[in-house]
Amino acid sequence: MRRTKPTWQKELASERVKRLFELAEESHLEKTGMADRYVQLARELAMHYKIGIPRQLRSRFCRECGSYLSPGSTSTVRTRKSIKAVVITCKKCGNITRFPYGRRKQPV
Ligand SMILES: [Zn+2]
Predict the structure, then answer these.
(1) How far is the CA of 93 from the centre of ligand 1 (A)?
(2) Does CATH place domain 7-100 in 1.20.5.420?
(3) Residue ranges per domain, the chain?
């Protein structure tokens, strides 16, 4: 049950996660709802292989409702200098995520 996947499989999976986000970016413009589906697939894949979603991609989907976040379209991105964080708001459900910058975050 708790067998870990071989490294090559994880690498392949993380490549597919990246590719799914690329597809989400492309299909998001067509407004077919496929972008959210790609995000869902990418998250399921990452969970299945116990690989994290790369930091640069973590701001591209809503953890709350799972929709693909495209800055200026389905999300708003604001920089808060006072708290040194990028604040991303999901336009679909209003969920707010903060991404601190300029300091080292302790690994979770
Ligand atoms: Zn949301």
Answers:
(1) 4
(2) yes
(3) 7-100
pTM: 0.84
From the CA of 83, how far away is ligand 1's center (Å)?
22
C-alpha separations of 85 from 7, 79, 103 in Å: 33, 6, 10
- CA of 61 from ligand 1 middle (Å) equals 8
Is the confidence at residue 86, as pLDDT, over 90?
Answer: yes
34 Cα to the center of ligand 1, angstroms: 16
Q: CB-based burial of residue 77 (10 Å sphere; 0-12 exposed, 13-18 middle, 19+ buried)?
A: middle
